[in-house]
Amino acid sequence: MNYREQLKDRQRIVIKIGSSSLTHPTTGNLNLIKLEKLIRELVDLRNQGKDIILVSSGAIAVGKKAAGLKDRPDRIAQKQACAAIGQCRLMMTYQKLFGEYNQIAAQILMTKNTMLEEATRVNAHNTFQELLNMGVIPIVNENDTVSTYEMRFGDNDTLSAIVAALVEADLLILLSDIDGLFTDDPHKTSKATFIDMVDHMDERLMQMGKASTGTNVGTGGMVTKLTAARIATESGADMVIANGKDVHVIHRIMEGKQFGTLFVAHRKEEFSLADYVEAGY
Ligand SMILES: Nc1ncnc2c1ncn2[C@@H]1O[C@H](COP(=O)(O)OP(=O)(O)O)[C@@H](O)[C@H]1O
Ligand SMILES: N[C@@H](CCC(=O)OP(=O)(O)O)C(=O)O
């Protein structure tokens, strides 16, 4: 059995979807058809008996549209206000769609502090565990509305890897606006070539994300996805970056098919989540 096929057996899966994959590029409005398909994918995995956690961006993008702003807000208070508006709109949509399949969803909002303090970290862990035991799909985002600059994760790629480590997930899937990792940013150079699998993460690989820092819609670019890959693989989870334009890619990955870039897990014996968060990754 090749390594890809082993993904069929992964039991606890964190799936992250970015703002650019949730919205129409032309208008910035939510892509409802894609959201419906995403929810069907997730509920079907749940029906197979898998534990599923969704890390969803989009609060600021949705709030920005609702507030009638043209550009992504840059002032922190404006971003936080947009997140406050957008997060509940987003959750309302998720609740409705999950409800159509009788699937219970829950909201978990976190800051870096949640991970740094032992008491809140253990609380968060226990809450996730309890929800998963109940068959619920937790939907996670950063608590953008209250997190200060110092206490922000700042991007959901990193947050999703932290969550994967916290819940001892065995697979993290990042849905992006691109097929996976290339040797360079393909939007900037036609010479960039696709990387199918990464078995070892070194400095040269980490540099591959440095060419760009994301779109007008999202925040992270490839840098944060590579940071996420380091955290996830060292915590013991495989990670795949795949294109979220067709969310059925989730099932294809779970069937062991060759989609996206696969980062192979190499659990570090001395892995400590608090140390990772403290060190700023
Ligand atoms: N080495 C690389 N391989 C692939 N994409 C890269 C690379 N370096 C930079 N990028 C850029 O990162 C973008 C994906 O990040 P981002 O815009 O934050 O998307 P998302 O909202 O899906 O997280 C790609 O569209 C691409 O332009
Ligand atoms: N927490 C923010 C998203 C942060 C983020 O990483 O965004 P993205 O690059 O779209 O995954 C929000 O909900 O708007």
TrEMBL record:
Keyword set, alphabetical order: Amino-acid biosynthesis, ATP-binding, Cytoplasm, Kinase, Nucleotide-binding, Proline biosynthesis, Transferase
InterPro entries: AceGlu_kinase-like_sf, Asp/Glu/Uridylate_kinase, G5K_ProB, Glu/AcGlu_kinase, Glu_5kinase, Glu_5kinase/COase_Synthase, Glutamate_5-kinase_CS
Residue ranges of domain Aspartate/glutamate/uridylate kinase in the record: 11-243
Name used for this protein in its record: Glutamate 5-kinase
Family: Belongs to the glutamate 5-kinase family.
Enzyme Commission no: 2.7.2.11
Binding, substrate: 57, 144, 156
Pathway annotation: Amino-acid biosynthesis; L-proline biosynthesis; L-glutamate 5-semialdehyde from L-glutamate: step 1/2
Gene3D superfamilies with a match to the protein in the record: Acetylglutamate kinase-like
Binding site for ATP: 16, 176-177, 219-225
Broad class of where this protein is predominantly found: cytoplasm
UniProt xrefs under Pfam families: AA_kinase
Function: Catalyzes the transfer of a phosphate group to glutamate to form L-glutamate 5-phosphate.
Enzyme class: transferase
The keyword ATP-binding is annotated on this UniProt entry: yes
UniProt-listed SUPFAM superfamilies: Carbamate kinase-like
Localization (cell): Cytoplasm
Catalytic activity: L-glutamate + ATP = L-glutamyl 5-phosphate + ADP
